[in-house]
Specification:
This protein has helices at 83-87, 111-114, and strands spanning 16-26, 31-36, 50-54, 57-61, 63-69, 72-77, 93-97, 118-121, 126-135, 140-145, 149-154, 160-164, 169-172. The chain is mainly beta. The protein has a 7-stranded antiparallel beta sheet. A 6-stranded mixed beta sheet has the order 11-10-9-8-13-12, with no helix packed on it. Strand 1 (16-26) and strand 2 (31-36) form a beta hairpin. The two termini are 33 Å apart.
């Protein structure tokens, strides 16, 4: 299963899930260097079409092929056949429709499902709302915005005690003074 990490803004249309970002060009034949938010990173190539952010809309592009390259991914899209066309797409977010993703297994969540959840401690103290997530290497971290911003490790069972997407709530074992 692919886990989707979304450090950037979430599209207004929640039918889209951001799965990566184009960070550079590769070669002269329209190759794109992509930073993938999926796990493993090459899973982003399993989804086609991609939807590329273009202001307030999404441009649909088919993935021709691609491969893992170091810590990233190189992708080739139809209608992107030279370096200039590829360069025009650099810094563009890559999304797929939610229906393209496999259903999350029990106890697993796409990060897009966690954004917006209200976070409360096991003692019922409101900490704020999940506004983002990021990877640190050791563990993933929730960004929770309330009266101040908090960084809470996403450690199921240890710190994150309950996630109830339907209720819009996450319960954490966390000291509100941190």
């Amino acid at each position: 299963m692919s886990r989707v990490v979304e450090p950037g803004a979430i599209p207004a249309d929640d039918d889209f899930v951001v799965v990566g970002k184009i960070i550079g060009v590769f070669g002269v034949r329209g190759g794109l260097k992509v930073y993938s938010y999926t796990e493993p990173h090459a899973n982003i190539l399993n989804y086609s079409p991609w939807y590329l952010a273009a202001g307030d809309s999404w441009l649909k592009r088919e993935v021709r092929n691609g491969h893992a390259k170091g810590k990233g991914v190189v992708a080739f899209l139809t209608d992107c056949t030279d370096r200039d066309a590829a360069a025009a797409l650099v810094h563009t977010e890559v999304a797929v429709r939610r229906s393209q993703l496999p259903p999350a297994e029990a106890g697993e969540y796409y990060w897009s499902d966690l954004i917006g959840l209200h976070v409360v401690t096991v003692n019922g103290i409101a900490l704020g709302q999940v506004t983002g997530l990021f990877e640190t290497g050791a563990n993933d971290v929730l960004v929770v915005q309330g009266e101040r911003e908090r960084m809470i490790p996403y450690l199921p069972e240890q710190v994150v005690r309950e996630v109830n997407v339907a209720r819009g709530e996450m319960v954490v074992d966390w000291d509100p003074d941190f």
